[in-house]
Every structure is written in C-alpha cells, then in structure tokens.
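Hi support team,

I submitted a single chain yesterday and got back a structure, but I'm not sure I'm reading the token output correctly. Could someone confirm the output below corresponds to the sequence I sent? I've pasted both exactly as they appear in my results page.

Thanks,
R.
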Amino acid sequence: MTVSQLTDLIKEFLESSFPDLTIEGEISNYRPSSTGHIYFTLKDDKAAISAVMFKTRSKSLTFTPQDGMKVKVTGSLSVYAQRGSYQIIVNSMEELGTGNILQLLEERKKRLAMEGLFDSENKKSLPFFPLKIGVVTSPTGAALRDILQIVKRRNKLVSVIVLPCPVQGNDAAPFIAQQIKTANEFNLADVLIVGRGGGSLEDLLPFSEEEVVRAVAASEIPVISAVGHEIDWALSDFAADVRAPTPSAAAELAVPLLSEVKETIERSSNELIRGISTKIDNYKILVKSFSPENLELRFRSIEQPLLQRFEDAKDSLILSMNDLLTQRKQQLKIATNTLEQISPKTILERGYSLVFDEKGNIVKNANQVKPDSKIIINPAKGKIFANVESLEEQNG
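Hi R., thanks for writing in. Yes, this is the structure output for that exact sequence:
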C-alpha cells in the first residue's frame, strides 16, 4: 500500500464511523483567521484534538471563544490527508465555563498583584543606548534568530549574550528563572529580553510560573517580556518593566537605530553649540555695556536727573527766601511807620515840647516846680532855659 492508499482507508473509516458526535473540552491555541474561519485545539488533562469551525458556522456564535474556555462542540471527524492528521469539523459550540488553566492563572495573577509584583512604580526605564542585550530563550528557536537579525540590522555596536534555556514543558520554568538570576548576579547585560515564539496556552505556561514571575520582578536589569505573538500573554508580561508583543518587537524596543542615535547626538550637539554661541553673544553685549564711554553715559543718565532736582530745589529755596525777605521788609516798614507815628520826636515836631525841672525830671504837673525855680524846655529843636514866675494849679 502507498501512503495515500492507507490514508484514504483511515479517512473513510473515521469519517464514516463518526459522522456526528458531541464532545467537551478546553479551548487552547485559539487562532481566528482573516477569512472568518476559527482554528483551535480541544483538550482535557490527557489528550487533545485539533478543531476547525468554518465561517458559515462561526457566525452563529453568541460569544467570543478564548483560550482556557470550556466548551461543548458538535460536529464530525475529518482526516486531513496532506498532513496525515485528523480533526473535528465543528458545526455548533456552547460555552461551559472557564478552563482549569485559565482559572489557575487568574487566581495566581490576583495573588501576585496583591503582593505588588505588578505595580507600575516598580517599573524601570530602558537605557537609551545599551551595549549588551541578554536574551533568555531557547538557543534553537526562531525567536532568537529574529532577535539576532534585528539587533544586527539596527545597531552593530550592540552585542547579544544568549542565556539558553528550554521554553516549553514542566522543567522549563526553573531554567528560565535561574538564567534571569545569573544575568543579574554577573551583570551580564544592560537589558534582558525574556520570551519565546508563539504557541498554545500550555506552551506558554512556563512564563506564567510563579518562580519566573518573581525572578522577572526582582531583576535589577530592566526586563522586556516577549512571550508569543501579540494576542498571547503570560504573567511575566505584567511583572516585566516593558511588555513587547513579539520577540522581534522586543529587539526593536531594546536596541535604538544607530542612525537615529547619531542624528540625535548631532542635533543635540548643534543645539548645544547654538546655545553656547547665544550666551557668548549675550555676554559680549553685557560686557560692552561696561566700557568707559557707556559707563560715563550711564553715570550721566543717573547724575542728570539728580542735578536737575538739585537745581530745582536751589531755585525753590532762593525764591522762598526772597519771598520771606520781602515779607519781613514789608513788616519792618509797617512797624517803622507805626513807631515813627508814636515817636516823641514826631509829637514835638507838631509843636509840643518837653519840660524838665532842675533835676532832669519831666514835669507832668505844675505842682512839681516852685516859683523862681529853673526849668528846661525841649521843643523839637534846641533847648530853652527859663525861670518859673508863678504857678496855676489845676484841680480835678
């Protein structure tokens, strides 16, 4: 028999024996296609079977299938001869609940989050120009080849240190965690990329194990988690400093383009030179303002208003003094006229005279002199010496 003949017999036997069946299982490796068909794996704890639901049937779904979801599907077995594999063609699907793995991961995620392993304030920034990139992954996987190719293309000055480990299976988690610790212990890299290529939920489980998540969170070296494809996730994504959708994207995040770095340095250098030149020009202008001519001009500009104020104050003082002198002269003139009006000399000039007795006392009353006594009469001008002949007293 040829391979084709044997496969045809198996195909005829299986498809005719299981034309209609209903099975329960957990969805894994869910892959919707752009054509509308959905591909996934149904599994339990002991076995797995491939499944496909074509577009005409998937339109009737009232929910969105996800990895880890428990479902009941109805369909028929089909043999895919080109690959020598069998699968179930799903006609209808009902949701039963969340799968054990997904439920376990959700519980673990909540517990580790409560410990603060996923807190954003603990995240470290990626270095601007790392010189060494550490990659914790399988040494034979496509993820490593993609990373090496992208790093070489983006920046040949950056070296890559591979920390090999299995990335699938029950024994993978301890190796992954140990390599992360080794990189930190010997300071092997500036950035760590921890991850692998795409796979089913079960394939990615090692990166959700608690010891791996704790090693990622405790790393002093910034960690980029790159597990699977964009739709895949692992708990290490939440603990890492940066999450990349793919290993290739992680390499692009970790390694800057050398041309962009050179351009940034050149732009910064030009800005620095322009800034220094501007400061020098400003200082030259400032120093120029302290030349003897400018200093004298500035001094004059300060002195002139003060001199003007001094002159104004002096003129005001002289004017005030002149006004005061004029007032005083006027007052003196008035006082002089007043004194002259009441002066004895003025009175005498009007025809009055002063009479003195022999002792020089002013005679105010006739009783002050006696007959035959001598008196002196002072008119306005000169003196008259006379003798008293008789007296006439005035009573009352």
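A quick pointer for reading it: The longest helix spans residues 292-342. Let us know if anything else looks off.

Best,
Support desk
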